[in-house]
Amino acid sequence: MNLEAYQTILDDISLDSDKNYLTLQLPIYGMDIDERKLFSHFGSELGSRYWFRSKEDAYNIVGIGYLESIRRDKYSASSLSKEKDALYDKIQKVRLEEGIPSRLSLFGGTRFDTKETTDEWNDFAMVEFHLPKWQFDLKNEVLFYTAGISEVDLQTVLGDIVRELEAIENAELKADGKPVINMEKDLFPDEWKALVDRTVDVLDETSFRKVVLARQRLITFKSSADPLFLLERLDNEKGTYTIYYEKGKSAFISKSPEKLFDIKGDKLRTNAIAGSAKRIHDSEQDELQKSFLLNDEKNRYEHEVVRESIVHDLKPYSDWVEYDPKPGILENKYIYHLHTAIKATLNDDTDVFDLLDAIHPTPAVGGLPKKTARDYIMEEEYGTRGLYAAPVGIIHEDNDSEFVVSIRSMLIQANSATLFAGCGIVKGSSSEKEYEETQVKFTPMLNVLEANDE
Ligand SMILES: C=C(O[C@@H]1C=C(C(=O)O)C=C[C@H]1O)C(=O)O
Fold first, then answer.
1. CA–CA distance, 291 with 277 (Å, rounded to integer)
2. Does pLDDT of 82 surpass 70?
3. Which of 73, 283, 423, 453 is the most buried (most CB within 10 A)?
4. Which of 199, 212, 329 to mutate to test the pocket of ligand 1 (most atoms within 8 A of CB)?
């Protein structure tokens, strides 16, 4: 870190009194800093921290201290877009080194739907995106430090940051052991199976083709789960996103394999992921599982419904959408899915918030027709989805962004964890099989809690 050169830059700038914040962007090359040290060092910021790592490692970001947030009780693409622009406009950005390949981002998401939430989701607004005080881009080794412009002392700020970085490098990493489980139970298991049976009778191949029904599993602990323990456990499943999102007294956690979309310039990438078979961890049996999945009519149908819907929803925003008509297999640690990569070139003036609104929820987590399915889920499903299966991710100043469909997830509060898992129901689905499938889909979170029998 070339502190003298950085100070010279700071000596040469004048603070812009029209702005609310100053963001300093500086490299932290070679520093021994990771997510666990950050969460340990910034323990007092509990409830105001996140870790977001994308599955292709495009992003690995920790944010600490929510300085300002966009919060809305209703989703409105145009208002959100304006608020995002206004927030970025309030920031004076200063690069302390040229050519750093990283940019400031906001992190957050929207709830799955507008269902009145039960108390459990009160910490998360309908739509919420945060500007953190400390944003660590761990992939590119860059820090974005943001402070209120009236509070910044350009003579002392660098020294303060350096001291903090040194303390982070020396942070203690002593996590508590795994949370001791008091009680573990599926919520409404028989009612859920009955709902699936009823739903199969309602579905057909034209007017209501598919709906995804989710269920919950509740685990209570003898004492609260240590964030450092959870972070360590979150590191152990490749090929998935990692979301650890604290807000108030809650933490929302996901190891989702499913991208909603990412945008770079005018290029959007998304995927259809639907159709599932358990991974058995025996090479012969797993080959059979994969070839079953590729050829099974019900799974193929479930998958095609998702792909068609995504392609259809992209059309107003793109004259060029490309995908392979034959799905492949997405391999996760516990499960296989049918997978189709979809690419689009976006038309001019497409806004990321319009795309979010247009694409979410895909029938991988909602159903088809989308509105019928959404209403059905709100009406019939037990409990509230909140951030489960909802878009969570990051947005830069322009449209560049990456969003996850936050499945394989749980909500942690005080001494309890609520796990969520759902599956696509079509005509001909069997409630027993779907129940088993959701059981498999709890595994990533059970594994994070070390609550499975593995
Ligand atoms: C809804 C979930 O998963 C979704 C449903 C799938 C299916 O029904 O085959 C497969 C992958 C996901 O798109 C979940 O994991 O909770």
1. 10
2. yes
3. 423
4. 212
Dump pLDDT digits (tens) for 88-107: 999 999 999 998 889 999 99
pLDDT at 454 over 70: no
Residue 179 CB partners (closer than 8 Å, separation 6+): 221, 222, 223, 224, 225, 226, 229, 449
Mean pLDDT of 343-353: 96
What tokens were used for 218?
A: 């509740």
CA of 90 to the centre of ligand 1 (A): 40
**Among 306, 423, 439, which residue has the most ligand 1 atoms within 8 Å of its CB, making it the best to mutate?**
423
Tens digits of residue pLDDT in 26-55: 999 999 999 999 999 999 999 999 999 999
If you compute the radius of gyration of the chain from its CA atoms, what whole number of angstroms results? 22
Instruction: Out of 407, 435, 442, give the residue to mutate to test ligand 1, the one with the largest number of ligand atoms within 8 Å of its CB.
Output: 407
What number is the ipTM of this complex?
A: 0.98
What gap in Å lies between CA 246 and CA 252, rounded to an integer? 6
Residue 312 has pLDDT above 60, yes or no: yes
Q: Which residue in the block uniquely carries the two structure tokens 């005509």?
A: 427
Residue nearest to atom 1 of ligand 1 (CA): 422
CATH architecture assigned to 181-448? 4-Layer Sandwich (3.60)
Using a 6 Å CB cutoff, which residues line ligand 1?
212, 214, 258, 273-276, 302, 337, 364-365, 389, 407-408, 421-424, 441
pLDDT (mean) for 288-315 = 96
Mean pLDDT on 303-331: 97
List, by residue range, all CATH 3.60.120.10 domains of the chain. 181-448
Neighbours of 96 (CB within 10 A): 22
